[in-house]
Structures are given as structure tokens and as C-alpha cells.
Request: fold
Amino acid sequence: MTKKWFRIGLLGIFILSLALRFWGLERFNTLVFDEVYFAKFGNNYLTHTPFFNAHPPLSQYMIGIGIWLGSHIPFWHDTVNGLTGSMRSPWTYRWFNALTGSFIPLVVAAIAYQLSYRRSFALLAGLFTACDGIFLVESRYALSNIYIVIFGLLGHWFLLLALDKQNRRRSFWLVFAGIAFGASVGTKWNGLWFLSGAYLIWIVAWVIQGTHSFSNAKLFFTSPSMEEAGGRSLEAGGRSQEVGISTYSPPFIPSPSSESPLQNLTQINIFQMLFYLGIIPAFIYSIIWIPHLQLDKTYGFIAVHEQILKFHLHLGGNSSDVHPYCAAWYKWPLMIRPMAYYYQTAKSITEPLPVMGPPLPAGAGQVIYDVHAMGNPFLWWFGVAAMLFLVGMLVSQAVIPWVKEKRFSVPATLSVDTWIGLYLIINYAANLAPWVKVTRCVFIYHYMCAVVFIFLAIAWFVDQCLRSYYQQLRALGVTITFIILAAFIFWMPIYLGLPLSPDGYKLRMWFNSWI
Reply:
């Protein structure tokens, strides 16, 4: 694929994302789901109204900036409401999120390219991300999760760019990585898991290097008599090997020119990590709080964190008794319990929807408007399978030489695909595993930070299929891509809140747990 077509493809993905997020953005002239908090909070900064928020304030700053800018644009004001505390058009408190969310597929594509330098992998990663439902829904309303994801992903992209540079240019990108990670945590505390993923892959890189160095050291210190006794050549199946020296090659053989920036992780020492990805994120997180603490002087910096922690600890257990859409972490990967952000019924398409109020009684409504926070089912399901495939690939690379040669060995150079597998698995686990111990009520949108690595996993798998020598694998890659695109179109009405007949709605609710 040429650079020209690669750029055209990225532009097409961005235009698709932009169009889907902005089309009919004012459709519901009300506050949808947690807009009752975040849109109001954003407006509170403009009206200088003190308030308590159970999350760090960055996303509300962004929404407030969007409201301020939108209020000075001489259009988008055909419909208004006073639900934020001021007379505002829904466009004003939604458009900035829509614009920000449109860039997420491009950032995911940039990460994929920086991991592998494969344009096909990058385009697939961007396309699949653009075809997910929960990211589309979250982008179209004044909610906060878009910001935690985009800042966390930017932190990873800047880190990968830094690994590809040297000296001052590396420091430049590491500073930006630290800023982005700090902004992610400044949106919600679980943005810290993006940063923990960066630390974990760095630690793994050092462990791999240390293990390989230790193996070489054992060979270096072997005495000549031992070498003579233990180094005799054996013939096994037409293949010779030295006793005690691994000749196993992993399934993916890297070419000399195939390198990943992740291979340079050990060029960053612990002091650099602590400064660029420790002190800088902490500093950014701290200064993010300044405007909020100047507005609301009820609590200081320490006290407000104690109040936030107390709020989350007292939210209640993770069951439907607390909230009908509570969904424990193990329900997220297979999308067992998605969430309705908005549900209204009307007698006809031309009938105006109430700004607030319950839907019509069961059986009375002929048109259903539903905004469902659910992913693209086949994208998520195929992605989980791809992630398991990556786990199997890495395990096989460790187990096969152990079984064959009765010893653990680390190849001198890991292939690009091995590094990609390590990166995706570690970051997926870093963003999912902490939720295992969380006992408060959690929801499917908490999975957004982890599921982006699922998108990268299925994009990697499909790219491997499309680049395969075997026709059957290429056909499999095309089939998976088609199913993901078709599923996105099929479920699009409940992402965009388009009018549906009762039968059309039931057709898309495949399981009772989805309703």
C-alpha cells in the first residue's frame, strides 16, 4: 500500500467518524444519561457555580470550553433548553465531545502503525475502532469517557514515538507522553491503568533482556571441559544442535529490517521513567485541579480526594438491586449487559418527544427511540478470540522450546509480532484486571479503556490473514471484516437513536440481558 492511499484511507476513516458523530447531534433536546451531571458541571464553570464532582475535573473543563465556544457560533441554536442551568442548545454541550471522539480511530491507527510500520494493520485498526458502537454513543453526548481514552491512547502513541527517536527528540516525546497520561488520570482515576500498562511493558522488556543476558552469561562461564563433555553434537531428525544451546526459532521469524520501537524500551532507565512517566503526570494531574479548587473552596486538594474516595466506596454492591445496569467486569468482554442511555416511545415519527418524562405505556408507542451504550457485538467477540490467539501464540513460543529442549530460552531478538502480542496483552490486562477487585456498581463503559486493545488485536489478526499466502486465510480475513462492517450498520439505529418500530427494536435486542 502506497503512502498516498494510506493517507486517503485515514482521511476516509476520519470523515466517516466525523459524519456519524455530528449527524443529528441535536436529535434529543434534553440531557441524555450522565449529561445530567457532566453537561451541568461544564456549564457551572461558566456561571461560576460551586459544585462537588466525584471525578477529577478535566472532562468538565473540556465540555465547558465546548459550551463557551458553541455559544459564540452563530448557528446550532434552533433548539434550546435550560436543563444545564442556562439556556443552551444541545449542540453547544455535545459538539466538542463529537469532535474529540472523531480522532480516536486515527490515534488507534497511529499506535498500530508505530507498533509495526504496517499501513494495512493501521488502517484496519482505525476502521474497526470507527465501527464500534459504544465509542460512537459516548462521543455524541456530553460524557467523560471519551477524554480518558483519547488522552491515555495519546500517551501510548507519544511513548512509541519517543522509543523511535534518540536524545533530545526522545525527551521531547516522553514529556508529551507524561502530559497525556496525566490528563487521562485527570479525567478519571482509572486513567492510571493506561500509565500502568506503559510501566508493565517496560518492565517486561527489561526482564526479557535480563533473562537473555543471564543465559549468555551461563554459556560464557562454562569451562572448556564442560563444553567438551556437554557440547557434543547430536543428530535428531536431520537437525544438529549443541547441548545446552537453544536453536529454537519462534513461529514468526523477524527480518533484519523488521523492528518495533518496543525493542528500544530498555534504552530508557528507571530514572527517566520516574521523571517522564511519574513526576510529569503527577504534576499535570495536580495543576488540573487548580481551577476547580478556586471555584469550590469547600475542600482542599487532599480533602476533595478523600470525599471522592468516600463517594465511590459508598456506591453500593455490584448488583441489579443497586442499579439495573450494573455489570461486573467479567460481563464486559462478551457484552452480556450493555446499557440504555436513552429510551422514549412516541405514537408517530412526527410526534415531538418530551424533554423529560416517562415513555408511553407498553403497547401504546408505535415508534421507539433508543440510545444503547453497546459495542459492535461481532467486533468485540472476534476481538476476544484474537486476543486469546495472541496469548496462545506467546505461550507456545515459551512452551515449545521447553518441551523440546527441556530448558527455558529467550530468542536473541523477538519478532515484531511477538512484541505486538506482548504490548496488546499487557495493556489489555492492565486496563481490565484492576476491576476484578472493585465491589462498587460498575458499568460497561468502564471497559472502554481496555477494549481499544481488543480492536488492535482483531485488526492484527485480520491483517495477518489478508497478508497470508493461503487463500483460505485471506478469505477468512475478508469475511471477518465484512461481518464487522455489516454488524455496525445493522445496530447503527440504536447507536444514533434513530426511530424504530417495536419489531425493529426487538430484532436488535438478541438477548434479554441487552434490554
User: Anything to note?
Assistant: The longest helix spans residues 192-220. Residues 67 and 92 are 5 Å apart (CA to CA). The chain has 19 helices and five strands.
